[in-house]
Write a structure and sequence with these properties.
Helix 22 packs antiparallel against helix 23. The longest helix has 28 residues. By secondary structure, the protein is an alpha+beta fold.
């Protein structure tokens, strides 16, 4: 039974094993259409053939590849599979396939002739130009549509088709006579700018297509005419938008707008190269912008009715300013001056006598916000809320004035400063929110310090606006630590002493004393810096805290010895070692530290017993006698230094003379060793005393004595006793330094320099106190508890000295600068300035606050230069008159003229008009006439009317 094996080309195995079929022919069977791009496939193989290779051939003889004279059919490159997609090159040729078995036997298919290509091509279509009728110079024409097909049925791909192009233009008058355009052989052709001038007016293109070895040429394309006609028409239409350089050809703004929009649409439809041929597009572009400006300004005028009264003057000013920017060409769009008339009707320059009267009243109301006492200004009314009400009322009344007359309000500095001072005082009062009686004293004082800092920065005027209750609250908070300071000082005093601590501790009270000292240290650290400076004996308290820890260790060692001595079976050496080590530690303590060791007496009485074994030496009696002498060293308070030194030397010599066996009987030799160390320690200390005694300079001796005092405080108790006589003699005979600072006096003087936010002393006195403080040593400076007062005073002196430099330099020439600086000074700073200077500043300040009738009259005159947005007749004469009056004013009066810019603007406008008139030449040439027309066309409406009024003869 025959079976067919169906496999795709990709899945085809290396060798196909085809079952043998009886009577099978010795050929290969192929299926598929004989058309380019169709697929031919091996369908049937000979019986019993195992095929492992294929090769497709053209049926045409070629020379053998091995160089022999034999010929062979031409293999199709790459065609080595059971299937073949017919290549383009096979068109019109005969092909077959050869199958090779594993045994090397070859089988061939019947030859198949592939259909020859019969190409067809469509007429090319063109694109890339602006209109369907013409193409403009500069535009690029492109072959857009062309199709190539095979009439024999092959389906061609784009990659198999190669195109070539050639452009032609019509030559002469002959019908359908075209000649080649040299170099125009691409799919696109850009029309030369000078094509028409060169005679290139009608063009076509022909396209040739090649597929394999087959060719086909297209019919010619439609004729495309080259012309400037579309852009020429547009250019002419744009030209007709103008009557002349200063006037649009317009009778109705809406129809004009529609016309230019149509022209814009036509322009935008052009290609970019065609647009380049429209040489006057800038005219159309400007017309579009100018119409937009006119329309927007018309819209703004239409919205006037919806603007509130407050914003209306500014709104109208903006409209007026916008129209003033229009030149003559733009204004030609304002047909019959309709927009101008509407704007003119909106304008109403202030010249109302009632407004002038209101300005005068408000000026006086502002001046009356201040009163002067002893040359110092303060507000009326004097409480913050009432002052705020008056200020609000004045501001509301100013807002009701027209814009120009608001500029006539004088002394606005007073009003603005009042607002700023109210705000500053409100911020100051707000700071009291952080202050609460529920806070700890430390917290209250800390917050109060911050508030006080802000309080002292307030000026005198600001201070007077602060209600009295806040001053009382501040004082209460500042004194919150005073009772705590007194209690802490008493507690510390009950714990510290010179030679011994007066607390007399015991085992039961020890921990409570430790806790009390820790509490006092903690309380001290919680105090503010100023309060901590009032605590006496804190350094001694810290020493006591350390001494408690040192003494506690010795106490525990003594307790351990007592406990050990009561234990049966403890060796004498262990007990003796415990005793001597503890005794050494005790003897190292200072007198103050020893006063804390409450179990010392019991310990000292419980000396350990020491047994001596062995042969009794001959000098035993001498050893026991020496032991008795050494026992006296246990209490050195029975000796002076000289006595102890002599006794120790004698005992040491006696000890050396003893035999080694006898020395064992001197069981308290540690007392001798301790006494020797005490002698050495005191001698070393004496050297410090001697160095201090020999110093003849009082200040240097004081420093050395300070060093001696620190060393004495660290000596063990025995050494303190032995050195006490010489130590006290040094202190008693200290050289008196007549120049030494009196700390108490300096502290007291600093405390008295200020009271009730006023300095009671001069700048010189503050500087003197500052120098005295600076000359102190760093340790003495710490004793000046009122330094914060002095520090603030020094800062205030610097501020005042800086102010006085400004006063000396500027008061005569520019008093307003001095007044402004004076008003920034705090109440305390002002108190440092001599009363005569305060009086001069006050008088000048009040003098500057007087209203100026001449200034107000001049403001009215300047406002009268314009009536409904147009300059008055004889503007030039009026401006000269006002200029003369203005120049006669003082510098301070000139600052009142807030509408001065209107005068300078009128002067500038007069000059602009005169400059344009200077260009006018009645008998001038065309160039001169055009220069005048150009300058005249740039005048605003207001200046155009002024020109016609001043130079009517030029308008003939």
């Amino acid at each position: 039974m025959n079976k067919k094996l169906f496999l795709t080309a990709a899945a085809l195995p290396v060798a196909l094993i085809v079952p043998a079929v009886a009577s099978a022919e010795e050929t290969v069977t192929v299926t598929g259409q004989n058309i380019v791009n169709e697929t031919l496939t091996v369908h049937q193989l000979p019986n019993n053939a195992i095929v492992n290779a294929y090769q497709w051939y053209y049926l045409e003889k070629v020379a053998s590849e091995d160089g022999s004279k034999k010929s062979t059919n031409k293999p199709i490159a790459g065609a080595t599979s059971a299937s073949l997609k017919v290549p383009v090159e096979a068109a019109g040729k005969t092909i077959f396939v050869e199958a090779t078995t594993t045994e090397g036997k070859k089988y061939q298919s019947e030859p198949r002739t592939i259909n020859a290509l019969n190409l067809a091509i469509t007429t090319p279509t063109l694109e890339g130009f602006s209109t369907s009728d013409f193409v403009a110079p500069g535009e690029t024409v492109k072959v857009a549509g062309i199709t190539v097909t095979d009439k024999a049925g092959a389906t061609l791909t784009s990659g198999q088709i190669t195109y070539s192009y050639q452009w032609f233009y019509q030559l002469g008058e002959g019908e359908n006579s075209f000649t080649i355009i040299e170099g125009a052989s691409g799919s696109t052709y850009t029309i030369p700018k000078d094509a028409i001038e060169k005679g290139i007016k009608d063009i076509i293109v022909k396209v040739k297509a090649q597929v394999g070895t087959s060719f086909v040429e297209s019919p010619r394309s439609e004729v495309i005419s080259i012309s400037k006609e579309p852009t020429d028409t547009l250019t002419n239409d744009i030209k007709n938008l103008l009557v002349n350089d200063n006037k649009y050809n317009v009778t109705d703004i809406k129809s004009f707008e529609e016309k230019i929009k149509v022209l814009e649409s036509k322009y935008q439809a052009l290609s970019e190269p065609a647009k380049g041929n429209v040489s006057n597009y800038a005219v159309l572009k400007r017309a579009l912008a100018d119409v937009d400006l006119i329309n927007k300004l018309n819209e703004k005028v239409d919205k006037v009715g919806g603007i509130n009264d407050k914003d209306l003057p500014t709104y109208i000013k903006e409209i007026e300013a916008a129209y003033d920017k229009f030149d003559l060409l733009q204004r030609s769009l304002d047909v019959n001056d309709a927009l101008y008339t509407s704007i003119k009707n909106l304008l109403n320059e202030p010249n109302d006598l009632e407004e002038i009267k209101e300005v005068r009243r408000l000026n006086l109301a502002i001046v009356n916000l201040l009163t002067y006492t002893n040359g110092i200004a303060q507000y009326v009314p004097s409480d913050k809320d009432s002052l705020q009400g008056v200020v609000n009322t004045i501001e509301a009344d100013i807002a009701k004035l027209s814009q120009n007359y608001r500029g006539a309000i004088q002394n606005l500095t007073i009003l603005n400063e009042a607002k700023a001072d109210i705000k500053k005082v409100e911020q100051f009062i707000k700071s009291f929110d952080k202050l609460s009686s529920n806070n700890t004293p430390n917290k209250q004082v800390t917050v109060a310090k911050s508030i006080r800092s802000n309080y002292e920065k307030l000026t005198y005027k600001q201070l007077k606006l602060v209600p009295d209750k806040y001053g009382q609250l501040l004082a209460t908070a500042e004194s919150a630590e005073e009772s705590q300071i007194a209690t802490l000082n008493n507690d510390i005093d009950s714990y510290i002493g010179d030679d011994i601590y007066p607390i007399n501790p015991s085992a039961s009270s020890w921990q409570s004393h430790v806790n009390n000292v820790a509490r006092m240290v903690k309380e001290y650290k919680s105090l503010t810096k100023a309060s901590a400076a009032q605590i006496e004996g804190y350094d001694s308290l810290v020493t006591l805290q350390k001494d408690l820890k040192t003494a506690e260790k010795v106490i525990k060692d003594m307790d351990a010895y007592q406990k050990l001595s009561g234990v049966t079976g403890v060796t004498e050496s262990k007990l003796n070692s415990s005793y001597t080590n503890t005794l050494k530690a005790y003897n190292k303590l200072t007198s103050l530290q020893q006063s804390l060791v409450y179990n010392a007496e019991e310990f000292l009485l419980n000396t350990p017993k020491v047994s001596v074994d062995g042969k009794v030496p001959a000098d035993k009696a001498a050893a026991e006698a020496l032991k008795a002498d050494i026992a006296k060293f246990a209490d050195v308070t029975k000796f002076t230094f000289n006595q102890l030194e002599k006794a120790v030397d004698t005992a040491a010599q006696s000890y050396k003379k003893l035999s080694s066996g006898a020395r064992k009987y001197v069981t308290n030799n540690y007392l001798l060793t301790g006494a020797q160390k005490d002698i050495t320690g005191v001698k070393s200390f004496y050297k410090k005393i001697q160095a201090a005694k020999e110093e003849t300079d009082a200040a240097k001796q004081a420093k050395k004595i300070e060093s001696v005092q620190k060393a004495y405080a660290k000596l063990p108790a025995n050494q303190q006793h032995l050195a006490k006589e010489q130590y006290e003699a040094l202190l008693k005979n200290q050289i008196i330094d007549e120049n030494a600072p009196n700390i108490k006096q300096l502290n007291d003087e600093i405390a008295m320099i200020v009271a009730n936010d006023q300095y009671l002393v001069s700048i010189d006195k503050i500087n003197t106190l500052s120098k005295q403080y600076s000359s102190l040593s760093s340790s003495d400076k710490k004793l000046i508890t009122n330094y914060d007062i002095l520090k603030a005073a020094i800062a205030d002196v610097k501020k005042v000295e800086s102010f006085m430099k400004t006063y000396d330099k500027s008061f005569s020439a520019n008093p307003s600068t001095v007044i402004k600086a004076f008003e920034k000074l705090t109440s305390k700073q002002v108190s440092l300035i001599h009363s005569d200077i305060q009086k001069l500043i006050s008088e000048k300040q009040q003098g500057q606050q007087q209203t100026n009738e001449n200034a107000l009259t001049l403001i009215e005159s300047i406002n009268s230069l314009l009536v409904n947005g147009e300059y008055i007749v004889d503007l030039e004469g009026k401006v000269k008159e006002i200029r003369t009056a203005y120049d006669a004013l003082s510098a301070s009066d000139k600052k009142i003229i807030k509408n001065y810019s209107k005068l300078t603007q009128a002067e500038t406008d007069l000059k602009k008009v005169a400059d344009v008139h200077a260009l006018y030449k009645e008998d001038g040439d065309e160039a001169a006439r055009k220069a005048w027309q150009s300058a005249y066309g740039k005048l605003s409406k207001k200046l155009e009317l002024l020109y016609k009024n001043m130079y009517p003869q030029d308008m003939k």
